[in-house]
Amino acid sequence: LQEVGEPFKEEKAVAKYLRFNCPTKSTNMMGHRVDYFIASKAVDCLLDSKWAKAKKGEEALFTNRESVVDYCNRLLKKQFFHRALKVMKTKPDKDAKKEKEKGKAESGKEEEKKSKKESGKDEKTKKEKEKKKDGDKEECKKDETPGTPKKKETKRKFKLEPHEDQVFLDGNEVYVWIYDPVHFKTFAMGLVLVIAVIAATLFPLWPAEMRVGVYYLSVGAGCFVASILLLAVARCILFLIIWLITGGRHHFWFLPNLTADVGFIDSFRPLYTHEYKGPKADLKKEEKSESKKQQKYDSEEKSDSEKKEEDDGKTEATRNLGTEGSGGERHSDTDSDRREDDRSQHSSGNGNDFEMITKEELEQQTDEGDCEEEEEDTESRPSHEKS
């Protein structure tokens, strides 16, 4: 009898905590808007509450999931919530019949179209199309990586109906809230509104200074709102006048962001905007585009010239290195090398490497050769004597 009777303060506190902290969803049930929750989420919510933590000298109210289920059964019997049944919505028979008829009509039309088409199509083209389709399917499968977002799955609609077996079970069971306490925020807002209404009705009883101050404030607020409305109308009239006089070439807006979806300060800036939309504007745009293109070409040419200069500098450096190396080699040349160079120059200068020689010239050359041999012998003899 105690369980079926009125709830205790502790039970009300637990139900209130569960009502405002457990995630809920709203739907229609029997023509009424109701809020429902899932049993497993309610159990998780209570296990994270203060009643699942032991106090000094007291045991915790919720120690495991079974204890939470037992307590929720008590709340269910005291009609804080009741169990509901999910019933998936099915399409009526009329809609199904209509869809079948549409499908039959479409299939008949397709068959007629196919019969009208040329029957003498090659099988090769069909096979090629099938191969292309298979290739496209394989590419699509390759492109589908695990990071790519999938298409949204269509959620099936359902409706709630009262369940015959009113028992709290831990799982995906649905329970509809009957207990609907007033939240503290809504209570505070309602209290403020009530006080404001009472204060407004007692306006004649206010002190004279307060009434004068409220009067000036209300007049100032009214003038401010009226000035904004007048500005909004005036700016449109000004735009139309300028647009008509200039034939649609000049677009002048005073306070362009006055009616835009921006903040209070941003709605007053910039002060005005002006746009010229005429033939010269198009020419200017073309000139700007051409100047940009020329700048790009100039920059490319500059980069090419810089590259050429760098290449020239490298070649000059290599030449200088080569000249320095050749100078060192020249210093190290021997007298024999110089003689050979002279002989080669003499032979190349005459250009007669193969000439007819007379007997007298041969005798002179042989005499010179003998003299050179004698000189060598004389030079070698004193050296042997000295040794």
Automatic annotation (TrEMBL):
The GO biological-process annotations, alphabetized, read as: post-translational protein targeting to membrane, translocation
- Ranges that cross the membrane: 187-208, 214-245
Show the segment(s) annotated as Disordered. Answer: 91-157, 279-387
Q: Identify the main location.
A: endoplasmic reticulum
Q: Which InterPro entries match?
A: Sec62 (IPR004728)
> Record's superkingdom?
Eukaryota
Indicate yes or no for the key word Endoplasmic reticulum: yes
Biased composition, class Acidic residues, residue ranges: 363-378
One Pfam family hit: Sec62
Q: Which GO terms describe its cellular component?
A: endoplasmic reticulum membrane
Q: Where is the composition biased (Basic and acidic residues)?
A: 91-145, 279-317, 327-345
What keywords appear on the UniProt entry? Endoplasmic reticulum, Membrane, Protein transport, Translocation, Transmembrane, Transmembrane helix, Transport
Q: Where in the cell is it found?
A: Endoplasmic reticulum membrane
Family from the record: Belongs to the SEC62 family.
Q: What is this protein called?
A: Translocation protein SEC62
Q: Which organism's genome codes for this protein? A: Centropus unirufus
